[in-house]
Structures are given as structure tokens and as C-alpha cells.
Design goal:
With 185 residues, the protein is an alpha+beta fold. 38% of the residues lie in helices and 24% in strands. The chain has 6 helices and 8 strands. A 5-stranded mixed beta barrel has the order 1-2-3-6-5. Strands 4-8 form a two-stranded antiparallel sheet. The longest helix has 26 residues. The N and C termini lie far apart (80 Å).
């Protein structure tokens, strides 16, 4: 009995620390809102405080539109967050003016889910999170999502091989490429 009594205070302390950790993680969200558009497998628009904010999921890179698994990646993200309330932990702004961030929905790390399910790579140029790298290796070993392809091409290589032409030459403008539609010249 004495051992059991000594264990209980430690169990309560552990439970309290876990709850405090969860509360702290929720308090870390820089903003909350509802996803109103899923652009591709790593970019969403969140309506927060009456304003739309384009959010690029930090640390991951999903296949581009027109690239194998690009549509599947977008669909997977849409199933996770489309129309749902999310929390965003900001980590900066990218060169296109998008908010970079970790996105959570109902306690799930969406960035990690895209990698875990095989719908995005860890963007090692900007991310070295060991948990994400491990999830990518597990997805690859299990041949989930894009890892079913015997030789999947990372999006950063795809973009090098398929550069966008300047808008003046009649190609898709950079803003339209993000939206996935062409704009008239």
C-alpha cells in the first residue's frame, strides 16, 4: 500500500503537467479562423477576424498542380481542414506575402498529417524537425500517398523542371498560379 500511495502523487503531477502542456499549446495559437479555401496541398485561406489570410503550411512542400499527386494532396488537405475551424501558429511570412505557420484542426497537426499520410515532403531547406522527418520516412516505408510512385519528384525539383513563363509572354501570372487559375491579360 505504501508504494501505491507514493505513486499516486506522481501520477497526479504527471497528469497536471500534461494538461498544462496541452493548455499552453492551445494558448500558443497566433490566430484562429475557418478555412474558406484550399489552394493546394500546402496552402489554405483562413477567415480570421473578418479578414482572409493566406497560410502556407510551414516546413512542408506538397506536389504542385499538374504534378503527380498534386490533386490528391489538395484533396487530402481539403478533407482535413475544408470549412473547419483551425488554429495557426505563425512562423513568418514567405516571399509571396503568405503567412507561414503550423495549422491545427481539432488538436491534429495538419502539417504533420500531410507528411505522415504521404501527401507532402518535409521541406528540408527550411525545416529540420526530427518528428516530421521521421513521419516522412515512415510514410515512404509504408508507400503511402505519393510514395506509391517508384520515383516521386519533389516539388522543388518539379518547379525547376517546369518554370513559369513571365506573364508578359502569355503565361499564368504568379498570383493566378497560387489560385490555380489563369487570369486574363
Amino acid at each position: 500500500m505504501k508504494i501505491r500511495n507514493k505513486v499516486r502523487p506522481h501520477a497526479w503531477l504527471a497528469a497536471l503537467l500534461i494538461l498544462l502542456g496541452v493548455a499552453a499549446a492551445q494558448a500558443r495559437a497566433d490566430f484562429c479562423g475557418r478555412v474558406v479555401k484550399v489552394h493546394d496541398g500546402d496552402t489554405v485561406t483562413v477567415l480570421a477576424g473578418g479578414a482572409e489570410r493566406r497560410v502556407r503550411l510551414a516546413g512542408i512542400d506538397a506536389p504542385e498542380r499538374g504534378q503527380p499527386y498534386g490533386s490528391a494532396s489538395r484533396r487530402a488537405l481539403a478533407l482535413l481542414v475544408g470549412g473547419r475551424g483551425v488554429e495557426v501558429i505563425e512562423s513568418g511570412t514567405d516571399s509571396y506575402g503568405r503567412t507561414l505557420g503550423r495549422v491545427r484542426v481539432a488538436g491534429t497537426d495538419v502539417n504533420a498529417a500531410q507528411v505522415r499520410d504521404g501527401y507532402a515532403w518535409v521541406y528540408r531547406r527550411f525545416e529540420n524537425d526530427l518528428a516530421l522527418v521521421t513521419q516522412e520516412a515512415e510514410a515512404k516505408a509504408a508507400r503511402r500517398g505519393l510514395w506509391r510512385d517508384p520515383e516521386p519528384v519533389p516539388p522543388w525539383v518539379w518547379r525547376e523542371r517546369h518554370p513559369q513563363k513571365p506573364a508578359a509572354q502569355g503565361a499564368v501570372s504568379p498570383g493566378a498560379a497560387i489560385m490555380g487559375r489563369e487570369e486574363p491579360r
